[in-house]
Design a protein that fits this description.
Layout (H helix, E strand, L loop, with lengths): L4 H9 L11 E4 L4 E4 L5 H22 L14 H6 L10 H16 L5 E4 L5 E4 L28 H10 L5 E2 L1 H8 L11 H16 L6 E4 L4 E4 L14 H8 L3
Antiparallel strand pairs: 1-2, 3-4, 5-7, 6-7
Helix pairs in contact: 1-2, 5-6, 5-7, 6-7
Length: about 250
Amino acid sequence: MSTSADEHAARTQAGDSAAPPDAAVDFDELTQSYRWRGPTGEHADAELRRLEVLHFERFVSQHGGVVSGSGGARGLHAPIRSQKAALTLPPGSAEQLAFFQREEAMRYSSPNQAWVYTLRDGSQSSVSPIGKKSSAVGKAREHFLLRPERPPSVTLLALVRDAAARLPGGEGSRADVCELLKESQYLIGGVNDAQISQVASGALDRLHQEQDPCVTYESERKVWIYLHADRQASDFHALPLSKKSKVASLL
C-alpha cells in the first residue's frame, strides 16, 4: 500500500522513514538519483516542494549530494544554489551608517596609515594602508562608479577591501560584501546591484591573489573570510607600498 506525501512527511519528521513515498518517486541506481513519477500539475508541484524541503538535508547526508541524471529531481539542489550568494547581513541603522561614513572619511584622510574600523557589534577590524604615496588632497582619477570629488586615494579595490574588513565575525557571502560596499559615501548614486556585484567579484579575486592576501574563499560554505582583522599597524609593513600601489591602481 502506498503512502501519501503528507503521511510520509509526518513519518519523516518523527524519524520513522528516510525514503520518499513509493507512489511519488523511484530511485535510479544507474544515475543515483530520485525521479518523480507521481501525478503532474500544480498540486503535484506543491507536493514535490514540500517533500524537497523535508528531505533535503537527509538526502544530501545519505547520498553525498548526488547529481541527478536526465529527468532527475534537480530541485533537490535548489537550496544549495540559493545559498551561494545569499545575503546574511541584517540591515544597519541610520546611526550605524553615519558612524561608518565618519570613520571612512577619516580613513581616507590618512591613506598611508593602517586603519581600524569599528563594526556594528562594537568589535574592531584592522585594514591595511591604501598604499598610494600621495597626499589626501588633490584630484581623483575619474571613474564612472565613483564620485569625482572623492579623495584621490579612494579606489574600488580599496572600498571592497574595507567592506570585507567590516564583515561581522570576519566572514560573509559576496552579497554581504556588496551590501557593505554600497554603504560607502564615495559611490555615485543610482549604482545598480549588477554593477556592485561585478565590482565586488573582481576586487575580491584580486585581493585574494595579492602577495599578502587579506581575504580567502571557503568554497564549502560559499563565504569570504577576512584575514587581517586582528593585525597591528606594524604587521602591514611586510608588503612594500610600491607593490600595494601597483595592485590598487588596477581598479
